[in-house]
Amino acid sequence: MRAGAARPEGRFSANAIPVPGRPVLGSRAACRLNVPDRFDPMIRPALCLALAVSALLLARPAMAELEVCNETDLAASVAIGYSDAGTWTSEGWWRIAPGACLPVVTDPLAQRYYYWRATNAHGTFRTGDYFFCTSEQVFTIAGDDACQERGFDRLPFAEVDTGTARRFTVTLDPADAPELPVQPDALVADGATAPGVLEEAGQSRIEGQGVFSHCDAGDCMIVAEGRRVLVGSGRAQLLRLARNTPIRFVGRVHSREGSTDRIALASFEELPRDRFGPVRDALQGRWQALRSPGAVFEITGGLRQDMILGTPVFEATLDVVARCDGGVVGPALSFVYFSGGNDRLCWEVTLLEPDTLIVLEPGKIEETVFLRMN
Predict the structure, then answer these.
(1) Positions of the chain with pLDDT under 70
(2) Which of 251, 260, 263, 359 is the most exposed place for a label (fewest CB within 10 A)?
């Protein structure tokens, strides 16, 4: 998602457009036009007022059935989620100025529960653990699964209970707004005061969502859509996190090579665990192929290391996804090698128990069985 994205055009009208040459309602000219001369001059003012009130009622724009009001000091971008005939649907973005309100659903509310996500230049408003597919561009997306496989992001939304109301207002409250993040020393030295300033200051800005993998003596690692993101400056912020914690992060790119980015971390937001969290946790440790004892790999967070005689020889990122391209079952393990080339590998998981992993590579017939070594 991108704070400041334009709202979908052509869906809803926020402002009435004046019609050139039309008399101003309630003026003497309008009264003369609308009240014929045959009426008694004594009752013409009353008739004029009645006509004016009637015209106002008829001319009122349709009330928004679900509107969002921004009571913060910064413009916000809003997306919503809802059930449409049994299909979970998400759409956005609407840009709402400070102090303004904007309709996001104009029909009478057909559902009790709706979901929303809002961002501003400082980050993301409070969210819940309800996930929908989103895009940085204006979007309407049917379905809330296989988001990344379809080229979308998968982000958490907050829930709003409208009860039995036919009209409802969601308020973006300052108490729920993101705070200005504290910058690490490396960024302060460059004169940056907020993540949004990085691009303006000529820096290479990175913002994304991924899974925190682990920290070693030098760097912390985040896996984001198959890329390895190594955090040097600002790594202390991540030390308290458990392995395989989903996060959203903002930083500055120091270098980029192949599928690896080295960054200075500006800020991050911890996200709720997704449905693949238990799979990532169960994969941690060293595994050996049952029929080829020399084939050994180890999973540490989101890092895969292929071993020969106990020594890592190739390394790859690990993403747990709904299914492989062309696959029929899931979940699946997606690997992108960043040493020994940038080859990709995907396995469908047919069995995962504490000491046994059975996988199938799409297009092959025979499964591979791995046994836990430790």
Answers:
(1) 1-64, 179-203, 328, 339-342
(2) 260
